[in-house]
Design a protein that fits this description.
heterodimer; A: 432 residues; alpha+beta; 5-stranded mixed sheet; 16 helices; globular; B: 436 residues; 19% strand
């Protein structure tokens, strides 16, 4: 593949207002791969992410767990090497090569010292471009994943998250666990994996982020040499539709012999492309974000009812959820449920104080540099921002939009997203 | 979050650097005994400011276990000039992130924050080193929080539950046998007066290390530290830990039954710490057995024979007193814990007679070295690594550590395997799932 073509489409993102340096160089290779490069020369390491839109959202309805299985076999054999050979090669240089699937995407992640970048990229590109998915490796992973799912059924947080996803996204792929169920994974075959990867792994659905002790020119050259000849199919990449079925608030209980109960409230919310997202983020921080939040103060500090109590927004490409969770001794469940409902309702009724507003905004803006303080974090961030369609100026825009949020904005989004009876509730524990 | 480092979660922060970073560290001991380590790192406008107290569950007494961790929670409950919650509020409204952890050996507090806020953090940390309120009402409510934390980590977590049992059986004299979070009965009983006395004894400048790495000017920060921490009176030298664990004279075993999906097997042997010439070999041995997917336990038990869902091991090079070398495995469904126990033992026995390959030895050394390089990427981890080496005798050991690792030979590994892993001196723990 000609290098000149790659350069033609190159474009460095303009610096943000205020003169902040661009977060990364971005260009689209001729076959459609989006290449993002951030130079961090001080430490001699390189982090690379190859993200493909082939996450669990693309699992066929009766094949939950297929993207996850596919990802977990990606490094288990290529045209040139067996799985154990790949493990030995990368670990011999103290590096790591891992692949995994999330809801939206499948990501292969490489971390190596600068001196080992050629070997690292060889292994990474072989895994992405020529996986052979050997049948014994698929069989082995099916057994391993099923055992891991079984074991996770002793973890109350995992049980609550699974049940809540089902309630929040009825009929949508986000309602299914990424790893599938023991039953669905048992049905998956090598043939399913091969077909899934052939259909979804394509250069025009792929983002490559290279971060660390490399220059843009070096990264372009090395990536193009390995991924440049990956052919782009003529049809359009498959897409997922956002959830359409409305969520009906429900309560669900999962019985386990435990001394604590895990409570998880959840409902649908909005993602970063919606103007409500920024006030919602501030509102969630005031309610249950840090160790000064209303829930932390009331449930933990004043009442000693929980070690963990928090709220969060979890946006993804095709939808978003807002959730509140706490763990408390079983006898106090009704009290904690009432406290959470009261605090949700209070956010809809009255504006937050100036001090709470200022603290939440200052924290969200001021702590942002720590989301980007290592090459691995920058690589994850770049790949995610591109995948979610947020633009490379997202870090600056985030700070600017958070900075503009007012107490009235918060009350308005609380009125939309915090009415207590709009939430589903899952309880895991000793239930009478 | 204001938390415990569990016995098994001590994935030792292997520290040090292939880059000659230590020569840029400015180290000073103030007149009051406070040790200060400062390292400029101007890549980002941020700083990690950490205070490490040389006190952990190792310094506790029977009947008052968990007091070090309980006190760690109370360090966020205010001083006369900054009331309860003010610490977190001041940090968060300045865009900072703070937290703390308690281990067997240390209690560590950190704030990661914009570099221009470092003076605020110095003021806050110096204040709570000497002026903690320890209000009985706050103690009463925080006690309930710690109890909930224990439920989450131990009562309701099969791995935590078994780990606590094994630790307590493996040590009969040394306080490493105490759970870091403390026995439930002790958490419920400990009095405010005991907590106050513990604070007075151990939270003195001569028992602490201040470490900062980030975008600051060393001289300005050192001046500020002298003006704040420097005014705190030197305390009495805290009492040394005198207990020495006697040799283990026979196998010990504990079997617990609990609602769980799969069994767990733990095996632990008493081994020496960093003070021993065998320590670098033990570190390499641990990596050969369980560092990554090419390691022996993963490749054989998880990959080739599919006997285990997970298998691994851990060695605490940095422990202040000799501690344990751990193995663990989770059997695959249908596999018996006794099978995994036998297989883990076989791996240990094989190391006693058969030298490791050159490739295994070189790979383990490269993995250890590489992990050092990766840690250099984060100011927080750079600071933690300096503190870890300072705790075992001096941050400069960071630069000799890797040469000790590089010097380990296959014969050394055979020797330490024979010296420390006698089959009749291990402690075994098994968790048997109780069906739902």
């Amino acid at each position: 593949m000609a290098l000149a073509g790659a350069v033609a489409l190159a474009g460095v993102l303009a610096a943000a207002p205020g003169g902040a340096a661009p977060l990364a160089h971005r260009e689209v290779l001729p076959n459609g791969i989006v290449l993002l490069v951030a130079e961090r020369p001080a430490v001699p390491i390189v982090a690379v992410r190859v993200l493909t839109r082939a996450g669990a959202a693309f699992d066929p309805d009766d094949q939950a767990g297929l993207a996850n299985l596919t990802a977990s076999v990606l490094t288990r054999g290529t045209a040139k090497r067996t799985g154990p050979e790949i493990d030995s090669a990368i670990e011999f240089v103290g590096g790591s090569l891992e692949a995994g699937a999330g809801r939206d995407s499948l990501t292969a992640a490489l971390a190596v010292q600068k001196k080992d970048i050629a070997l690292g990229l060889d292994l990474l590109s072989e895994a992405v471009l020529s996986p052979t998915f050997p049948a014994p490796e698929v069989t082995r992973k099916v057994a391993e994943i099923r055992a891991a799912i079984q074991r996770s059924e002793e973890d109350p947080g995992t049980l609550a998250t699974r049940a809540l996803s089902r309630l929040v996204y009825p009929g949508h792929p986000y309602g299914r666990p990424v790893e599938g169920t023991r039953e669905s994974v048992a049905r998956l075959t090598r043939d399913d994996v091969v077909k899934f990867y052939a259909r979804h792994a394509r250069p025009d659905a792929t983002i490559i982020a290279v971060v660390g002790a490399v220059t843009v020119d070096e990264a372009r050259r090395e990536i193009t040499a390995r991924f440049g000849s990956w052919a782009r199919p003529s049809d359009a990449p498959p897409a997922i539709t956002p959830p359409t079925t409305a969520m009906t608030p429900r309560e669900e209980k999962v019985k386990r012999e435990l001394t604590q109960s895990t409570l998880m409230f959840g409902r649908r919310a909005v993602r970063q492309t919606d103007p409500d997202y920024f006030p919602l983020s501030v509102a969630s921080y005031v309610l249950g974000g840090g160790s000064t939040s209303r829930l932390y103060t009331k449930v933990r500090e004043e009442s000693g009812l929980a070690y963990a109590v928090y709220s969060w927004v979890s946006p993804a490409r095709y939808g978003a959820a807002f959730a509140v969770s706490a763990q408390t001794r079983t006898a106090e469940v009704p009290k904690v449920v009432a406290m959470i409902r009261d605090e949700l309702a209070r956010m809809t009724r009255e504006p937050v104080s100036d001090r709470e507003l200022a603290l939440a905004k200052q924290f969200l803006i001021g702590s942002f540099p720590f989301r980007l303080d290592t090459s691995a974090k920058v690589a994850d961030f770049l790949a995610a921002v591109e995948d979610q369609g947020l633009g490379l100026d997202y870090a600056d825009r985030y700070k600017e939009r958070i900075g503009r949020v007012t107490a009235k904005d918060i009350q308005d989004v609380a009125a939309k997203y915090f009415p207590p009876d709009s939430f589903s509730l899952v309880t895991v524990g000793e239930i009478k | 979050m204001r938390s415990v480092v569990s016995l098994l979660a001590i994935l030792v922060l292997l520290a040090a650097s292939s880059a000659p970073a230590a020569d840029r560290v400015v180290a000073s001991t103030l007149d009051n005994g406070l040790r200060v380590l400062l390292l400029e790192d101007h890549r980002s406008p941020i700083v990690s400011f950490q205070v490490w107290y040389r006190v952990g569950s190792r310094d506790e007494q029977r009947g008052a276990t968990g007091i070090a961790h309980f006190l760690e929670h109370l360090m966020f409950k205010g001083t006369p000039t900054r009331g309860p919650k003010q610490f977190a509020r001041l940090v968060e409204e300045n865009g900072g992130q703070d937290n703390a952890f308690t281990s067997q050996d240390v209690t560590s507090y950190y704030v990661d924050i914009a570099a221009d806020k470092i003076d605020l953090v110095i003021d806050l940390e110096a204040d709570r080193m000497q002026n903690l309120l320890l209000d009985p009402k706050e103690i009463a409510s925080e006690r309930e929080v710690v109890i909930e934390e224990r439920r989450t980590r131990t009562e309701d977590d099969p791995g935590g539950f078994l780990g606590e049992e094994v630790g307590s059986v493996a040590f009969k004299a040394h306080p490493y046998g105490f759970p870091i979070i403390g026995w439930m009965e002790d958490i419920k009983r400990i009095t405010p007066a005991e907590i106050r006395a513990f604070y007075k004894t151990y939270y003195v400048p001569n028992n602490a290390i201040v470490v900062a790495v980030g975008d600051f000017k060393t001289q300005a920060v050192m001046d500020k530290i002298r003006k704040t921490f420097g005014k705190i009176p030197k305390g009495k030298t805290p009492p040394p830990v005198l207990a020495v664990e006697p040799p283990q004279n026979g196998e010990r075993r504990v079997v617990v039954t609990k609602e769980a999906e799969l069994p767990i097997v733990y095996m632990a042997w008493h081994v020496p710490n960093h003070r021993s010439n065998d320590a670098p070999a033990l570190e390499v041995l641990s990596t050969i057995l369980s560092g990554g997917r090419a390691s022996r336990l993963y490749r054989d038990l998880v990959y080739q024979r599919q006997l285990a869902l997970e298998a691994g091991g851990d060695y605490s090079y940095f422990a202040l007193d000799p501690s344990l070398f751990w193995f663990w495995a989770t059997p695959m469904p249908g596999q018996k814990p006794e099978t995994l126990e036998a297989e883990l033992s076989k791996h240990m026995e094989r190391l006693k007679t058969e030298p490791v390959t050159d490739e295994e030895l070189a790979r383990a050394k490269n993995q250890i070295e590489s992990s050092f390089v990766f840690q250099e990427d984060s100011v927080h981890r750079r600071a933690s690594m300096l503190a870890r080496f300072e705790l075992i005798g001096g941050y400069a050991q960071k630069d000799t550590f890797m040469s000790k690792i590089r010097a380990v030979t296959a014969a050394d590994l055979t020797r330490v395997a024979n010296a420390w892993f006698a089959p009749d001196r291990k402690t075994v723990g098994v968790l048997l799932p109780k069906p739902r």
